Each structure stands twice: as C-alpha cells, then as structure tokens.
Amino acid sequence: MDSFFREVLRVDTDFLGMHHLALQDTTLSTGQVIPKDSLVVGALEQIHRDLRFLPVDEETGEVFVGEKPLEEFDAYRYVGKKIKSTTVGLEHLTFGLGAHACPGRFFAANEIKYVLAEMLVRYDVKTKTGKRAPDNVLLGMTRFPPREPLIFTGL
Fold first, then answer.
1. pLDDT tens track for 60-113
2. Where is the secretion signal located (predicted)?
3. Residue 74 contacts residue 112 (beta carbons within 8 Å)
C-alpha cells in the first residue's frame, strides 16, 4: 500500500509546482543569477520523472528506477525498498524538503492509507459508466479530479 501511495504522489501530483520568493540575489552553478524578489517555481512533475534526481540503490550502487519507465505508473516500484511514501528528497518533493518538509506527512499518509484500505475491503467502487474515469483535469498549475461520480456498493 505504501509503494502504491508514493507512486500516486509521484506520477499524479495534484500541484505541479512549488513557489518560492528569492530573498537575495542568488547565483546558480551555471552562472545564471536569480535576482532578489524573483518568483521561482520548482516543476514537481518534471523533477519526479528526471533520472538525475533519483535515489541510488544502496546495495547495487545504481540509480533506482524500478521495472517500468518513470513515465508509467508502477504500483510496485518501491516494494522492498527503504524508500517510504513519507521519505523526502530531491526525487520526491510532494511533502517538501529539508526544514520545510511537512511535519504532518506521517499522520496524513497513515490516515489516507487507512481510509483507502477500508474502502477496498468494504466497497466495490465503479464509475457510473463502468469505464475508467477520465484523467485529471489540468487548470493552471493544479490538477483536479474528474467530475464523473463514483458509485460505492457495499460488499
């Protein structure tokens, strides 16, 4: 369940960027200068799919990708790995990073996984048409779930 949850957060991030205001002039390693008071946006979707930011497997020393390409959803990508849904790092910024990492991420992850597990055990969930719901709608830098209603039938 934890691997599935992390992969959902990685592949289908609802917020596509994190905004920050530059507090001082900053020079990047490329020589590019970000002037003070500039708005800087980290592109989460691109970061979550960039090989340069992926963790290195401690056992093999290789970059960890999993069985499927990063563009594809793989519910088992993190099974058996030390990487958890709440682990923050450059490859997974959904919960922030460093001193700005969400302190409630552990509680949130446990609650979401609990509710999802209860739903799976208690209900058969389908769309009204019986077909897969359409992909999320992108509006600006935010994704919204499809509007098609879900039907919950008790088991």
1. 777 767 778 888 889 998 888 888 999 998 888 889 888 989 999 999 999 999
2. none
3. no
